[in-house]
Amino acid sequence: MTTYPSQSVFSLYRRLVTSEKNMFSFQERKDIKQMLKEYYRFHPQQFTSSGHSIEDKLHIIQILLDEIGLGKASVLSVLFMEPIKNNYLTVPEIEQKFGTSLDSIISGMQRVEELYERSFSLETENFRKLLLTFAQDVRVILMMIAERLYFMRILDKFSTDMQQSMARECSFLYAPLAHRMGLYSIKSEMEDLSLKYTNREIYREIAQKLNETKRSRDKYIEEFIAPLKEKLGREIKYSFEIKGRTKSIYSIYSKILKQNTPFENIYDLFAIRIILDVPLDKEKMVCWQVYSIVTDMYQPNPKRLRDWLSIPKSNGYESLHITVLGPQNKWVEIQIRTTRMDQIAEKGLAAHWKYKGIKGETGMDEWLKNIRDILENPDLNAVDFMDEFKLNLYDQEVFVFTPAGDLHKLPKGATVLDFAYLIHSNLGSKCIGAKINKERNVPIKYVLKNGDQVEILTSPSQKPNPSWLNIVITSKAKSKIRQALKDIEFKDAEIGREIILRRFKNWKIELEEGKLSRLAKKKGYKTVSDLYQDIAHEKIDMLFIRDAYLDLDKHETGTEQAEPRSAETFSKETPAEELSAKEDVLIIGQNLKNVDYTLAKCCQPIYGDDIFGFVSVGGGIKIHRTSCPNAPQLISKYGYRIIKAQWAGRSGGTQYPITLYIVGKDDIGIVTNITSLISKEKNILLRSISVDSSAGVFQGNLTIMVNDANDLNSIIKKIKQIKGVLNVSRTKSLTQNNQ
């Protein structure tokens, strides 16, 4: 049995399609009626379906036309949304018949519906941004606001659970959106209705008290307005209107909470609005003239002056708010504005089509700047001025969901790997791809799209590699990958070092760090750490390393060819042979043969230090610094074993291990600053670091590889300049076991 619309529905329909002059021609009205009749004849169940009935749609259209001010495209989109969804009609068919573009509205409405079908957390600023991004066309947002306002007005027809859910959503999502769009009247009504269903007792209490005080309040407003109206009538040559307005229940409730005071102590329960009908070019002048008249009659509160004439709000709101002390010593808020400003305050951005010269600010409401161009286009119909306007908000951002429904924001172009590192560093390091929208698997380089639901896939064997830096775009991901790569290199180098130490020990070969460093450079490695990593990755044979290490001295010449230098930097070097001929001095670094010497561990001498030799009992020679803590005892007790020693002319590329003792304030990031400084030094390699912190002070040992004393003194000086470092010195060791 076919269900036919009631007479009231026909009446409402006729009123709407004829409400705006020239919106629909006579033939277009006939076409709309025929198309809808045909559709609902084949889909009778949708005619009265809850939330989607034709009556619901007509009431929503009435709000769009009367309270928001949208036009033809929006009306057609609401009427034909269901036929389009059910493939009964197509967007091009409707556009061709009525000469209006609907594609951006219909696609935006469909995308928003898809968004709502997912599980997510609505109570976030990110969701509001995602909603605006999905909508694309600003009219979609206005249509959503109109739809929610209609259902809030008939919320009594729904279940208690549905009332609570819709009221909460309206409060934290739609009312703020209405505020952003400048729809103050709708925003206030939404807030009141939300409070009515989420906190009935408070709502009833405030409403009851407002009702009880209504008579006295109305009387006071009349007494306040009368003399003001008379004086303005004498001094202002333009027509005007003065009316009193009781503040919304939600606004009063907010003041009660904010001021922590009872209802009886809220003084500004109402506001007086002065609306002036003046030309656009004289608006500010006349408003300030009215301000001067009001403040002459009543004492103003300068702290309560709000000047939105000079700098309008970002949503286009313009008005001048002042608070004055009226009769009976009561504070009264007065709003001074023009008819144009009042229309914009009531209908928001949709009222802009009547006026030009709208100002805008940056930020979330960036789109307001574009309205000026649209309004000033003489070829664009005023009523349908928004037909060509897209809501291109957040085009540099993308919003995606976790499987749990949490919403995250990333820059446009971000990949699955960026998202994984955003969630957690370990998740990023183990990421092998993702499952998008529970449907398909994608690689780590997949570029995320707005509204994607992303489930990160991991593997315990996965680890970062340098190519990942070309996949990610966020600084957090790049930083974490670089840190992970450094950690991997450090661990691999440690493993390689352990391998070579163990194998050399098995072969009964004494391993010298400096000699191994020379070998690494000879084989083309930048640092000995790179050699260690290749050993760990089994890229180089250990037998080859052994043979090359043992043959190193055989293939190195006794003297190195001097590098060419300019006359400005030339200084004569004393040949080792000349020195040894004149005095009995042990020359260190000239590939000594038949002399068994080692560098003492107690003072760690390096090229450039003042040194001496000490002949041990076994016949070998230990090289000490002259400033060694053991030197005084050695010289006093065993002076006959002391021999003079001197370094050869150049260090020859040998690197020496040095341990620095550092003391500083235990500030956040100080250790990172130290290691970062060392990593940037070209000729210095960090071997190890150990730090202990107590009572706000940290002490640490830092082992580094350096070429000579000049490099060492330079790095010590730089470390001392780091904020928080108190002292840097070579590690002190007073043991004599290394003699």
Summary tags:
disordered C terminus; Beta Polymerase, domain 2; 6-stranded mixed sheet; Hypothetical protein af1432; 5-stranded mixed sheet; alpha+beta; 45% helix; 5 domains; 739 residues
Question: Could you describe the 3D structure shown?
Answer:
The structure is a single chain. By secondary structure, this protein is of the alpha+beta class. The chain folds into 5 domains: 7-198, Orthogonal Bundle (Hypothetical protein af1432); 208-358 and 375-386, Beta Polymerase, domain 2 (2-Layer Sandwich); 397-473, Beta-grasp domain (Ubiquitin-like (UB roll)), CATH 3.10.20.30; 483-554, no CATH class; 656-730, Alpha-Beta Plaits. 45% of the residues lie in helices and 16% in strands. It is built from 27 helices and 20 strands. The strands form 5 sheets. Strands 1, 2, 3, 4, 5 and 6 form a 6-stranded mixed sheet that branches. A 5-stranded mixed sheet has the order 12-16-14-15-13. A 4-stranded antiparallel sheet has the order 18-19-17-20, with helices on one face. Helix 9 (160-180) runs antiparallel to helix 10. The longest helix has 32 residues, at 475-506. It is elongated. The N and C termini lie far apart (111 Å). Residues 1-6, 352-394, 557-584 and 732-739 have low confidence and may be disordered.
